[in-house]
């Protein structure tokens, strides 16, 4: 594994190459979620891909993890376009700009889809894991999942929202119930805990782009919606999601019917992290897709 940083106008972007970029197989860049969750919880994705002999690239998007943090940047600084620019520069920095693929998880899949709707000749395939194409639909589906929570959990969430206090033990405990149902249905492994800790340590990007919780998207992504652009994605695309996912089957179905060359794999035992919850099946599906489409 090679670890380094890319310097650009806004600071440094940390990255790690898992595998060998000299391999004849098309490399895959892993886009983490959050926004601001850093690469930690996606380490397993890179390792699964690299185990097939295909190199994978992990990186921390600007503003989180081991990359430059910008807590004083203005709200309008944090846009999908910023992260698309960073991704473009990273592929050029690594010398793979003419031949690469993407796998994006949650926010990373949102970024990957928007990126793929634009002209990217070097992009050969796209995998979107557990992602919406509209934050309004995400919020609507989250409200439906929330309505199924125990009465006392919903009461704790409402109390926190009324008080504007998203750090109280009662709110944290209530969110844990939601996370255990719809984010990861097995005990959180250390890599997942590390990513949650990233957001807690510096919530700038998450709070600015999303908001204070999974239920309140009041940040810069509030009106983000690319449903009417999805038909422009011309590369082979794989959608991955869980039966209990925050990215609900209904949400993913709307994406599935809009992308021309697309396959959808629903993981029956998973919530928002099939790569953690059903890793063996995830490996078969993802590596099988990449082999079939890229060789």
Description:
The chain is an alpha/beta fold. It has one domain (2-294): Alpha/Beta hydrolase fold, catalytic domain (Rossmann fold, 3-Layer(aba) Sandwich), CATH 3.40.50.1820. Helix content is 40%, strand content 16%. Strands 1-2-4-3-5-6-7-8 form an eight-stranded mixed beta sheet, with helices on both faces. Strand 7 (237-242), helix 9 (249-256) and strand 8 (262-267) form a beta-alpha-beta unit. Helix 1 (43-50) packs across helix 11 and helix 5 (151-163) crosses helix 6. The chain is globular, with a radius of gyration of 18 Å. The two termini are 23 Å apart. The mean pLDDT is 96.
Number of DSSP E strands: 8
Elements, N to C (H/E): EEEHEHEHEHHHHHEHEHH
Overall body shape: globular
Q: How is the quaternary structure best described?
A: single chain
- Residue runs with pLDDT of under 50 for 5 or more positions: none
Q: Architecture in CATH?
A: 3-Layer(aba) Sandwich
CA gyration radius, whole angstroms: 18 Å
């Amino acid at each position: 594994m090679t670890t380094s940083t890319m310097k650009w106008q806004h600071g440094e972007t940390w990255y790690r190459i898992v595998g060998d970029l000299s391999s004849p197989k098309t490399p895959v860049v892993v886009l983490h979620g959050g926004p601001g969750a850093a690469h930690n919880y996606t380490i397993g994705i890179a390792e699964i891909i690299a185990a097939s002999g295909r190199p994978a690239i992990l990186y921390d998007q600007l503003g989180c993890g081991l990359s430059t943090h910008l807590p004083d940047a203005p709200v309008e600084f944090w846009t999908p376009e910023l992260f698309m620019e960073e991704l473009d520069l990273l592929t050029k920095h690594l010398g793979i700009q003419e031949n690469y693929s993407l796998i994006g998880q949650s926010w990373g899949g949102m970024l990957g889809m928007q990126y793929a709707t634009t002209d990217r000749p070097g992009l050969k395939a796209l995998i979107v894991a557990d992602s919406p194409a509209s934050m309004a639909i995400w919020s609507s589906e989250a409200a439906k999942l929330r309505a199924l929570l125990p009465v006392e959990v919903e009461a704790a969430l409402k109390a926190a929202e009324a008080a504007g206090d998203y750090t109280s033990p009662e709110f944290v405990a209530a969110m844990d119930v939601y996370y255990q149902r719809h984010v990861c249905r097995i005990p959180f492994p250390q890599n997942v805990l590390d990513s949650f800790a990233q957001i807690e340590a510096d919530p700038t990007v998450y709070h600015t782009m999303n908001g204070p919780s999974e239920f309140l998207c009041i940040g810069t992504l509030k009106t983000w919606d690319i449903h009417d652009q999805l038909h422009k994605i011309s590369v082979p695309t794989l959608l991955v999601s869980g039966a209990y996912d925050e990215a609900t089957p209904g949400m993913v179905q709307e994406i599935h019917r809009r992308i021309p060359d697309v396959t959808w794999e629903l993981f029956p035992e998973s919530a928002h992290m099939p790569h953690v919850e059903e890793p063996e099946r995830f490996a078969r599906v993802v590596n099988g897709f990449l082999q079939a489409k890229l060789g």
